[in-house]
Amino acid sequence: MKNSNAHPFFSIIVACCDVEPYVRESLDSVSNQQFADWECLIGVEASKDKTEEIVREYAAKDPRFRVFTGPRSGSCSASRNTGTDMAQGEYVIFLDGDDTIAEGSLQRLHDKIAARPGADLYPCAIQVHNDISGKDENLRDNYPADFNGELTGPEAVLSTLQRLKDPCPMLQLTVFRRQYLVAENLKCIHGLRRQDSEFTPRALYLAKRVVPLHEPFYLYRIQGNSVSVSGAKAGGFLKDFAVIIRSLLNFHAIHSKDPGFDPRLSSCWARQWLDWLFYFWFDPRSMRKVPRPQRLQTLQLLFENGFGDLKALSAAVSRAKRIACWWVRMFVLHPWLRWASELFFTVYFSASRLKNSRSAGPAS
Question: Would strands 126-130 and 135-140 be described as parallel, antiparallel, or unpaired?
């Protein structure tokens, strides 16, 4: 029997665009759940295939499915934001239209959340299938499997960034309390690809209670024409990461002034965000593949509001990284020093790789 609750337990927000080959499987994974207390809000951006026609079939058969449309943006952000505004559920799950959720997982999630209700975030786990290789990849879980406690947002940041070099930032890894998203006005940046990398650090830090569930409810598909794969060509995400890093540097500059702010957070964030900055724009392989004008233009976008936020974060890093930040600034501001900046980073990355190879020791 279909659930008609106006305020369901779960709001599942599905972002769709040109996913005709996958969307039936995705929506079936929702409709076939034994747990019935959900609504599914499907955002369809202008598609070149029959995606919209298919999702409207589901909405016509089951009122728990609701469809909204929008212009093509190349990003999940608009659908996720609009879906969050429309949602009536207590907890929000984000699902991409080419992915699925595991059989029986909504009931398991409900039971685990009901046992410890009211947390802002419930991080889970993701099983990854690579359509390109045809193989299942390692389960992704940002927290130790034997951890059954709860954390504040800052504690969760320190836990994930100290434990993992590059923790998976995917929104789909987490069940969100809807009122938390609303109260903090947590939205994805419109049109931004890789928006998870910008959204998730903010959502994690601001949370009052984080309860890891370790539930592998989400089945994530890597397929050849996805945004993450198709945009991975040399320089394909530079503009996006310029916007991401600019936003996160500003986020740190604002919240590092919060009462009781733990300075270890600055070190953890810097390790990831500054490494992105150095790698995407100045790694020798990136410099060979991406023309200098493109790298310069996107760096100017990153620092369009000046270098104050970069300076605030770089205060938390080693002297070598502070010098590297200075050379980033020289590259942007002084045309006659761009060659010297690139030479510095060639040496910087060579030294870093040599250090890493030595610390790894001889192969066994």
Answer: antiparallel
- Give the model confidence (pLDDT) of 281-302 as tens digits: 999 999 999 999 999 999 999 9
**43 touches 19 (CB < 8 A):** no
Strand duo 126-130 + 218-222: pairing: parallel
3-state class (DSSP) for residue 71: coil
214 φψ region: left (φ > 0), alpha (ψ -120 to 50), beta (else):
left
pLDDT in tens, 116-159: 999 999 999 998 887 766 677 778 889 998 999 999 999 999 99
User: If you ran DSSP here, which 8-state letter would residue 252 be given?
Assistant: H
**DSSP category for residue 133:** T
Contact 244, 302 (CB under 8 A): no
DSSP code of residue 33: -
- Strand-pair partners of 222: 130
Q: Are β-strands 218-222 and 100-101 bridged in parallel, bridged antiparallel, or unpaired?
A: antiparallel
The pTM (predicted TM-score) of the whole model is 0.91
Q: Would you tell me how many other CB atoms lie within 10 Å of the CB of residue 19?
A: 26
Element (H, E) at 11: strand 10-16
Delineate the domains of the chain, giving CATH numbers in brackets.
10-230 (3.90.550.10), 238-357 (no CATH)
